[in-house]
Amino acid sequence: MSEALLGVIIWGIIASITSVITLFYSHKKWKVEEKIKSLKEKRNRLELLYKEIHPKLVKWISENSYDIEMLSHFECSFPKKVNEQFQKLMDDKSNDPTKNKFHFLSMQVKMNESLNDIDKEIESILK
Question: Using H for helix, E for strand and C for coil, what is the string for 23-46?
Fold first, then answer.
């Protein structure tokens, strides 16, 4: 009788360990999926903001007039390197069309780099 009881206890422990291991790996997989989901949402949000700001930015640069709402997006919502490039544009008071085009191009490059950075982060998680 005691051997049967001991067998039940041992197999119960083995079954419990298997359940805990399965739960651990399921949780780990869920965390990775949520991280990827979050990064994709961030990328989509930034891409929409970039598309929204693109025509406005051309207008702002040509008129040297900036919308307060979008200024706040640059400060709060955009990645640091995009914000830094925008600050360079704001600091340049020359209003030279050639320089403005260069600033605009530089901002577009930084925006695309930020999207590529998110893509690379997603790819590194998936490897």
Answer: HHHHHHHHHHHHHHHHHHHHHHHH
Question: pLDDT digit string (tens) for 92-119?
Answer: 777 787 888 888 889 899 999 999 999 9
How far is the C-alpha of 101 from the C-alpha of 61, rounded, in Å? Answer: 8
95-120 burial, b at 16+ Cβ within 10 Å, e below that, comes to eeeeebeebbebbeebbeebbeebee
Domain range list for the chain: 35-126
| pTM of the predicted structure, to 2 decimals | 0.77
Q: Which amino acid is at 88?
A: K
Amino acid at 65: S
